[in-house]
Amino acid sequence: MDTEIKRGKLILIFAPTGSGKSVLINHIREAYPELTFLTSCTTREPRPGHENSSYTFLSVEDFKARIEAGEFLEWAEFGGNFYGTLKTEAENALGAGKVVIKEMDAQGVELVRAIMPPEELVVIYIDAGSWEELERRVRARAPITEEELASRKLRYVEELKMKEGADFVIHNLPGELESAKKEFEGVVGRILNVVRG
Length: 197
Ligand code: 5GP
Description:
Bound molecules: guanosine-5'-monophosphate
Number of strands: 9
Strand content: 15-25%
Largest sheet: 5 strands, parallel
Oligomer: single chain
Order of helices and strands: EHEEEHEEHEHEHHHEH
């Protein structure tokens, strides 16, 4: 008898900053309770009034010590802060056959692509329209310096290139949140069906 547990799949959510990904990710969390959401370690400050449970807030010193210890599956510096995914957290869930969701920046996606078997990986890009639209959302969300905004714009231009390499693109254009939720639900539902066999 084959008692080996079939390995799960890692869904990477990739979205330009401020693209409304949190709303979509919260929606998918409610729609499919069987999904496993990985946390991000980060050195950035918690945002007031936000649900911060998907982040573990670390000091720069602690983060660097964990890099040295090889604890991260991937890590990246984004907007002057460090972000990373813990190897053990990802591996435990995938080994248990779970469908795992993690959002990350472009550098993280490329790193994971380089080390994970392609059949275990799905990359979803959330397309939220023009830079002007994104800038408006980012400014409305929390105080941000002009310097940080400028570096986010450079990043946004880079991020657009990721769209071509994605397995799926979800269209979250202004005023179309409900259809974006449905689109996202459809894609994740199909992935779950494949893993469930
Ligand atoms: P924010 O500070 O706005 O929550 O996230 C900033 C950026 O960091 C976003 O592009 C987000 O996808 C990315 N990010 C969040 N967690 C991780 C992570 O664990 N690894 C990487 N590489 N990027 C992350």
